[in-house]
Task: inverse folding
């Protein structure tokens, strides 16, 4: 019998031949600055997790989850509009609306589904959606699947964005950007985007995935830090990074949220997230708000590491945040460096196309607030040796 899936095997082989095949790696321990991986007794210092504030294994979250599972059980067992809405969901939504100062908020099972829901549902036929070239795949895929036309702009060419905004043939104009770009660690020029949205009466949507918890006085993100929160029309806050849970918040006015509840298929036709996860979200958010020292330590660690890497002559792109790429270029070299670092005790995945543009494969180093100076120094030394021995 012929293998019905040979056509897929051929493509996987092609990925392998071009150093683009991905494999899963299994962590056996709690996620912290140090982890233990399957089949390897030696601990690795973790530099590729989004657990920026080290909340993934926080004892207060564990206690809240334990209490919630006793009180509510685990499963919500239905979609939100049927019988899946439980007190913890409502509480999360109320607390986040207050956190962002919006009229309302709604919880999705993930950041991906939050973006999918907003971008497939809100822009309508006759509208245009303007996407930053470096926007996350969830933003791009959702927009593609939606009703509106779309174009991309480069963040360093906002003059092009302005030209697109000036085109009068569309009913409405949407600008969609991440606040901290996930693969480069640079920030969007939110001030200029707000000016443009005002000048052209556009709707501004900001995905704060990598800024939530990490930026702003209370951890409410980059827009908050810049005093621009009230200018953002729809805030997307994925909760799987610094908040260290799962879920995605959409915060906006009541009309937008009511519309999503009624029309967004990724909300309507999926089982509600576990109420236990909501307890984790609420506790993590409380820690984020009340422990600004975590943000300060994260920023200090990032600054320290970036300065040391730049002094080595490594290409850290335009990073100004806790995400620091070391751009290597070819996928093959990047994989080799990642493997060598692994052998030396550091877990940093190689990020390759299509996640980043061709020829810009990289190590995406994500700093955590609990990394020690010794761990940062050890990484710099290992990189110095490894990139040299890799013939670069
Ligand atoms: C900018 C951005 N938006 C959305 C998502 C998706 O969020 P989630 O992982 O919660 O689905 C991610 C993460 O992968 C992201 O980096």
Result:
């Amino acid at each position: 019998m012929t293998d019905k899936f040979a056509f897929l095997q051929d493509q996987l082989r092609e990925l392998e031949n071009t150093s683009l095949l991905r494999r899963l790696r299994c962590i056996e321990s709690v996620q912290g600055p140090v982890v233990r991986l399957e089949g390897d007794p030696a601990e690795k210092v973790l530099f590729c997790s989004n657990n920026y504030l080290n909340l993934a294994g926080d004892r207060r979250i564990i206690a809240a989850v334990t209490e919630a599972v006793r009180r509510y059980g685990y499963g919500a067992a239905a979609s939100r509009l049927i019988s899946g809405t439980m007190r913890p969901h409502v509480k999360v939504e109320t607390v986040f609306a207050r956190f962002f100062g919006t009229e309302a908020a709604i919880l999705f099972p993930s950041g991906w589904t939050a973006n999918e829901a907003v971008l497939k549902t809100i822009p309508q036929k006759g509208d245009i959606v303007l996407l930053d070239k470096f926007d996350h795949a969830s933003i791009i895929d959702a927009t593609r699947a939606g009703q509106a036309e779309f174009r991309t702009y480069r963040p360093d060419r906002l003059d092009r964005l302005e030209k697109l905004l000036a085109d009068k043939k569309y009913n409405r104009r949407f600008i969609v950007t991440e606040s901290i770009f996930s693969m480069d660690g640079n920030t969007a020029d939110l001030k200029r985007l707000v000016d443009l949205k005002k000048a052209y009466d556009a709707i501004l949507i900001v995905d704060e995935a990598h800024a939530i918890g990490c930026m702003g006085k209370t951890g409410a993100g980059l827009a908050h830090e810049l005093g621009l929160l009230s200018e953002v029309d729809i805030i997307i806050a994925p909760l799987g990074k610094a908040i260290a849970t799962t879920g995605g918040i959409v915060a906006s006015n009541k009309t937008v949220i009511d519309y999503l509840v009624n029309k967004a298929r990724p909300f309507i036709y999926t089982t509600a997230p576990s109420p236990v996860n909501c307890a984790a979200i609420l506790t993590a958010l409380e820690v984020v708000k009340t422990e600004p020292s975590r943000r300060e330590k994260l920023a200090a660690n990032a600054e320290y590491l970036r300065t040391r890497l730049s002094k080595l002559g490594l290409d850290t792109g335009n990073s100004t945040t806790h995400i620091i790429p070391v751009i290597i270029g070819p996928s093959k070299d990047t994989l080799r460096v990642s493997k060598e670092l692994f052998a030396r005790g550091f877990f940093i995945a190689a990020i390759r196309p299509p996640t980043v543009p061709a020829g810009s494969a990289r190590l995406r180093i994500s700093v955590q607030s609990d990394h020690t100076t010794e761990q940062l120094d050890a990484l710099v030394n290992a990189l110095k040796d490894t990139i040299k021995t890799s013939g670069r």
